[in-house]
Amino acid sequence: MPTITTADGTEIFYKDWGSKTAQPVVFHHGWPLSADDWDAQMMFFLGEGYRVIAHDRRGHGRSTQTAEGNEMDTYAADVAALADHLDLKNAIHVGHSTGGGEVAHYVARARPGRVAKAVLIGAVPPIMVQTPANPGGLPIEVFDGFRAALLANRAQFFRDVPAGPFFGFNRPDANVSQGLIDNWWRQGMMGGAKAHYDCIKAFSETDFTDDLKAIDVPVLILHGEDDQIVPIADSAHLAIKLVKHGTLKTYPGLPHGMASTHPDVINADLLAFFKA
Questions:
Q1: What band does 1 get if pLDDT is binned at 50, 70 and 90?
Q2: pLDDT tens across 3-42, in order?
């Protein structure tokens, strides 16, 4: 399997498909998933002539099940190491959920010439947890509940999330896909419990405000208006006010996992932004 080894000895698995002379699109997955969550996008944009790349975040998927380094500074450093290894130039970085935070943290620090554009889909920035400066955020007890559920029965927790709010399958009119639920569970259970536990703090408590302000490339923010995981009012609606060159598009009735439930819709909007 293609991997890079980071400075601390962690092996990061990645996929790299398409012509090495084509513009690269780098996909960053959400918690607790893997690069496989981007299958619908990887295949589509490969067909459109792009070089498509996705990695398994440390502790996730086929990468090393790390006990340390499961926080945003290291996640971004791992992405920088991958970009250096592949010598990516003029790349478009697309992140979903936790991966959106990773994109913001990396792009704000990327070497000149590495990044052309960024996309945040159902993404966690600016900050998820409720604080005095972010009164509309989710109470810390919500994330404590995630940690407790993971410790009590990770396998069951990783059934309940996709069968319920992640894809909006708990809505009365939902078109439930058992395949999506099973694939979510498969990806989650490939990763390490310690890394998944630590990542809850990383995605919920990291403040990306300064990252968003520092990004100096075009940013597209896409968010489902029925996102039950990352509520739109305290994420996309705030993030768009912080980026310099931002465009916000929201989708009535669509869930957190809309890139999987509605790939045709999302892929078309991504392609338009890539070509703009």
A1: confident
A2: 999 999 999 999 999 999 999 999 999 999 999 999 999 9
Residue 191 three-state SS: coil
Determine whether 159 is exposed, middle or buried from the number of CB atoms within 10 Å of its CB (0-12, 13-18, 19+): middle
Query: Which entry of 28, 34, 56, 97 is annotated as an active-site residue?
Result: 97
Q: Dump strand ranges (E) for the chain.
A: 3-5, 11-17, 24-28, 51-55, 91-96, 115-121, 219-224, 246-251
Does residue 204 have an active-site annotation?
A: no
Does the annotation mark 256 as catalytic? yes
Out of 63, 198, 256, 260, the active site residue is 256
Task: Answer whether residue 249 shows pLDDT above 90.
Answer: yes
The catalytic residue among 36, 56, 78, 227 is: 227
Q: How far apart are CA 155 and CA 231, in angstroms?
A: 25
Instruction: State the average pLDDT over residues 160-185.
Output: 98
Q: Say whether 227 is catalytic.
A: yes
Residue 22's Cβ-count burial label (10 Å; 0-12, 13-18, 19+) is: middle
Residue 180 has pLDDT above 90, yes or no: yes
pLDDT in tens, 225-239: 999 999 999 999 999
CA atoms within 13 A on the CB side of 186: 9
| Cα 169 versus chain centre, distance | 20
Q: How far apart are CA 122 and CA 125, in angstroms?
A: 9
